[in-house]
Amino acid sequence: MPCFCESSVTEMQKSLDMGVLPILPPPPLSMALGAALPSLTPENRLDMQIAAGFDPSVLPPLYFGEKPIFGMALNRSGLPPLNLGSMPMLLLAQTLSMLSDTFTLDDLPTLEMEMAEAAQSIESNVWPQLGRLTSFRMEPLLNFANIAQLTLDLQSMGIDPFAVDSFPSYPQASFPHFDFALTAPQVSMARIVAGIPNIMSLDKTLSLPPLSEPGSLELMYGYMSNLAAVTPPNLAIQFPELQKLALVIQSLDTIEEAFGPEAFGPWMLDRIETMLAVWNGFSMPLPPLEPLALNAKLDSLPPLEAIELGQEAAQEAAMAMVTLDSSFSPPELAITPFLNLTQALSGSFQKVLEIAPFDMCSHCPFA
To answer: Which domain of life is it from (predicted)?
Structure first.
C-alpha cells in the first residue's frame, strides 16, 4: 500500500534530529576537481566510451512519424524501419516506467485508491511531524550537502579529505585534453536509444498484449486516454512545500552519511571548516573550470549499458514489426506531479531509514 505509515514517519523524525543550520563557506574548487579527475581519464570518460561503443549502423532506420531521426533513414543494418511515434511518447514512456515501480498503473481503481491513501498519510503523518523541516534556509543547507557529497566522493576514491595536506597526485599525462567527444546529434541519439526499452515495454507496464500483436497499440492508446482522465487527490499542503521537504530530507541524509550523527555539533563543524580552509590553499595541477565543465556534461549522459540495451530493444522491435502511430498525441497526465512528488518523498524515506516506507503496512493505522 503506497502510504507513509506512522511508524516510518516517527523513525524519520528521530533520524533527522539536528541542531542549528550552520553557514559554511562554499566548497573549494580544488575539492570538486579532486573528486572529478578520476572520471576524466581517457579510459574512464563516458563520452569516449559512447563514441567508441555506440554504433548506429546496427540500428534499424529510426523514425518519428515520417521524419528520420538524425539521418537514420539510411539502412545499413538490413532491419525493417522502426517508428517510435514521437519524442513526447518516448518521454511519457520513461515517466510511466519509473512510476510503475511504486504505483499500480495497470488498474485505475486501484491507482485511485493508492493515491488517496498516499495523500491521506502525507497530510496525517508526514506533514504534522516533518513539515517543520521546510523552515530551513535552502541555500546554506544545499551548500552543506554539496560539501558532504564531495567528501563522500573523495572517500569513495580512498582519499580522506580531512587528512590530506596537498592536492591528490595525478600524472598530468593522464588528461590529454578536455574536449567533449560527442556531437550534439550523437548526444541526442544516445538519449533516444537509451529510452527505447521504456517505450517497447509499455505493454508490460500497463499489462497489455505485446505491442507486436494486432490491436495492441489501439488498446494502449485507449488506456492512456483513460489514465489522462484520472484526477489527483486534493492536498491541503502546497506542492512546492512538499517538494522542498523531500529535498531537505535528502540533503540532511547526505550530510549525516558524510559527517555522522554529530554533523551539526560544534566539534564536527570546526573540523569541516578547517578541512575547507586547507583545501582552499591547495595548488591545483591544472585550471579547474574546463575539466569541471566537462564533468558536468558527462554526468548528463545515459550509461553506456542503457544505450546497449536500447540497441537490442530497437533490433527486436524492428524484427517484430512494431511501429507506433505518430498521429497519436500522448495525453498530459494530471496525476504525474502528484505521483512524482510521492515517489520523491518515498525515495527520501528509503534512503534515510534504509527501508521501503510502502512496505510497512502491518504497522499502518490506515491498513
So the answer is: Bacteria
